[in-house]
């Protein structure tokens, strides 16, 4: 089963977030709506994804200076997550 469309949807939403075209709330909703993709991956992927999304949501409640979660670092980690998910699905 190909999950190319779901992965592309997540990449697009990450790009949209980085360019401030969507809110963190909309971004997290988009990611959480891809249950079939997450189910096709080992369970750890879902745990890591949810941890990163939770940190993004928590960090959005504070200014960058007062929050220990760097939004840029979290976004970079989600990009790594996408790359690893794609590799896992392609093997």
Care to give the gist of this entry?
Helix content is 73%, strand content 0%. With 91 residues, it is mainly alpha-helical. The protein has one domain (4-90).
List keywords for this structure.
91 residues; mainly alpha; 5 helices
Task: Describe the protein's architecture and organization.
Helix content is 73%, strand content 0%. The mean pLDDT is 90. It is mainly alpha-helical. It has one domain (4-90). Helix 1 (4-18) runs antiparallel to helix 2 and helix 2 (24-32) packs antiparallel against helix 4.
Describe the protein's topology.
Layout: H1 4-18, H2 24-32, H3 35-39, H4 43-59, H5 71-90
Helix pairs in contact: 1-2, 1-5, 2-4, 4-5
Q: Any idea how many domains?
A: 1
Strand portion, in percent? under 5%
The mean pLDDT is 90
Largest beta-sheet details: none
């Amino acid at each position: 089963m190909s999950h190319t469309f779901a992965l592309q949807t997540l990449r697009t939403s990450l790009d949209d977030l980085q360019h401030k075209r969507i809110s963190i709330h909309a971004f997290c909703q988009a990611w959480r709506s891809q249950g079939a993709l997450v189910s096709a991956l080992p369970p750890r992927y879902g745990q890591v994804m949810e941890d990163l999304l939770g940190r993004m949501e928590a960090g959005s409640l504070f200014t960058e200076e007062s929050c220990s979660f760097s939004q840029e670092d979290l976004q970079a980690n989600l990009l790594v997550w996408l790359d690893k998910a794609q590799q896992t699905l392609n093997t």
